[in-house]
Amino acid sequence: MSIKAILTDIEGTTSAVSFVFDVLFPYAAKHLPDFVRQQAERGDVAEQLAAVRRDSHEPDADVERVIEILLGWIAEDRKATPLKALQGMVWEQGYQAGQLKGHVYPDAVEALKRWHQEGFQLFVYSSGSIQAQKLIFGCSEAGDLTPVFSGYFDTTSGPKREAQSYVNIAQALKIEASQVLFLSDIVEELDAARAAGMVTCGLAREGGELAGHVTVDSFARIDPSSF
User: Fold this and answer.
1) Angle at 155 between CA 152 and CA 95, to 5 degrees
2) What is the DSSP string of 22-89?
3) N or C end: fewer C-beta atoms under 10 angstroms in the chain?
4) Which tops the pLDDT comparison, 129 or 186?
5) What are phi and psi of 181, to 5 degrees?
6) Are 167 and 175 in contact (CB under 8 A)?
């Protein structure tokens, strides 16, 4: 059965891990406190602050305590949905101000554009919020790449290392899992996607193997029609 859709991870796959850890996270840590103080009453922000209080079991936490919790989550790289949503809002301001440009590997840019032209449906699945995903690709160093994508998925579909998350995504796509090619640099994510019935390809940009999966060091070496 031939591949119809390609589902790609971002961090370490289309984009450098260092961009996330050395640029995006520090930017969010620096700007998030003032953003939360200034926007705490805004509807979408207030909703996420309420989620932080709920997730941390501190229903009475004031804004300063919520900021403290969020900075702690950033420091430990917690995959918390309200944190990801708030980070996305802060990054949006940075992208719009021209202070941030999304990093996407040139080989990924070229391949994504080619696959789109060839008729493959392209989707993103990342632990970063859908908003943050759109910003990385929409305000990338290579320009606006969002036209090549048909949709985005984040942790609201489930954790990336659990097979059920990929079952959920395949159902949302209304495409047989066996017709979806999943790309990632993390073997546990690839294992979960395969368990859900997807075809997998690992990205090991520094070389090496992702055990049990076809592994390449560049998007240029991926031919979706060969799977």
Assistant:
1) 55
2) IIIHHHHHHHHHHHHHHHTTSHHHHHHHHHHHHHTT-TT--HHHHHHHHHHHHHTT---HHHHHHHHH
3) N
4) 186
5) -100, 120
6) no
Percentage of residues of the chain with pLDDT beyond 90:
89
Q: In this structure, are residues 83 and 70 in contact, taking their beta carbons and an 8 Å threshold?
A: yes
Q: How many residues would you count in the chain?
A: 227
Is residue 53 within 8 Å of residue 8, measured between CB atoms?
A: no
> From CA 185, how far away is CA 183, in angstroms rounded?
7
149-208 confidence digits (pLDDT tens): 999 999 899 999 999 999 999 999 999 999 999 999 999 999 999 999 999 999 999 989
What pLDDT score was predicted for residue 79? 84
> Other C-beta atoms within 10 Å of 62: how many?
11
Q: Could you tell me the CA-to-CA distances from 162 to 78, 150, 172, 210 in Å, in that order?
A: 17, 23, 16, 17
Q: Which domains does the chain have, with CATH numbers?
A: 5-16+103-226 (3.40.50.1000), 19-96 (1.10.720.60)
Distance CA 150, CA 123 (A): 6
- Residue 181 contacts residue 213 (beta carbons within 8 Å): no
- What kind and span of H or E run contains 202? strand 199-203
